[in-house]
Hints:
The structure is a single chain. The chain is of the alpha/beta class. It is about 45% helix and about 20% strand. It is built from 5 helices and 5 strands, in the order βαβαβαβαβα. It has helices at about 15-25, 40-45, 65-75, 90-95, 110-120, and strands at about 5-10, 30-35, 50-55, 80-85, 100-105. Strand 1 (about 5-10), helix 1 and strand 2 form a beta-alpha-beta unit. The chain starts with 6 loop residues before the first strand and ends with a helix.
Amino acid sequence: MGETIKKILIVDDEENARIGLSKLLSQEGYLVDSVANGFEAMDFMRQNKVNLVISDLNMPEMNGLTFLRELSRHHPSTHVIMITAYGEVESYLEAMNLGAFEYIHKPVKLDELKSVMNKLGSEPH
Length: 125
């Protein structure tokens, strides 16, 4: 039986998207933290354990794919769901090859996200 998703880190440079998703997931009973970019996320994860990272693909400074590379190198067991407003096939394939569990388009629909998270929660490790 897989590990239940409880602690989530949201990584998104768009403050409104970050706050909105944090509120939705908190209301669903998850423990949610959020940061604005990949550098902040890596710093956060040095100090805190999270079960799931939900990361935007297009961010300044460290984009989602670069962050995903760093994350898989330093925290290989952390699940990742990538979100993007841009549906580029190349980035989708690269994200999946780097270990992303799923790739969701913005605006994120709570039902779709919960469905993906349910698959993660029951996935064997």
